[in-house]
Write a structure and sequence with these properties.
Largest sheet: 3 strands, antiparallel
Radius of gyration: 19 Å
Strand content: 5-15%
Low-confidence stretches: none
Distance between the termini: 40 Å
Order of helices and strands: HEHHHHEHEH
Strand order of the largest sheet: 1-3-2
Length: about 140
């Protein structure tokens, strides 16, 4: 997805993505169990989604790891000045108070510890490297002697 967006943008264009991260508890469970089973859980725990019968399939390519890992992956495509902001928490377990309390305690603990890989969502802002910036970077990496 990130590479496709990069190819569509002109140099200087800015990509903006908001995506879930794999190691938040509900997303990890969604990824580990079969799609039909996870769909049933989503509809059981979230009545609104039960009515509209919508659930995204579990694809978490490039959605795991620390902020630095995600930043380096995005830089490798050709973006520059990548900003990664992590958000913690979700409302998937709000209808089950005991599980919600346990999840909230877990989220607070990983946030305090700075364990960005366990955040729930990432906001990513990444400008496409301008042609002249790429030339300057190349010259800096390979100086003429």
């Amino acid at each position: 997805m990130h590479g496709n967006v990069h190819r569509m943008l002109k140099p200087g264009g800015i990509a903006f993505h908001l995506f879930p991260t794999l190691y938040a508890v509900p997303f990890l469970i969604n990824w580990l169990i079969p799609e039909q089973v996870s769909r049933g859980f989503v509809f059981l725990l979230n009545p609104v989604r039960r009515e509209n019968r919508r659930k995204f399939p579990a694809h978490y390519s490039w959605c795991a790891g620390s902020n630095e890992r995600i930043r380096s992956q995005i830089l490798s495509i050709g973006y520059s000045d990548v900003e990664v902001e992590r958000f913690y928490g979700h409302n998937y377990l709000s209808s089950v108070p005991l599980l919600s309390s346990v999840e909230t305690a877990w989220v607070n603990a990983v946030k305090r510890a700075g364990m960005t890989g366990f955040g729930s969502y990432v906001r990513l802002r990444a400008p496409v490297r301008r042609a002249r910036d790429a030339v300057i970077e190349t010259r800096l990496r390979n100086p003429v002697e």
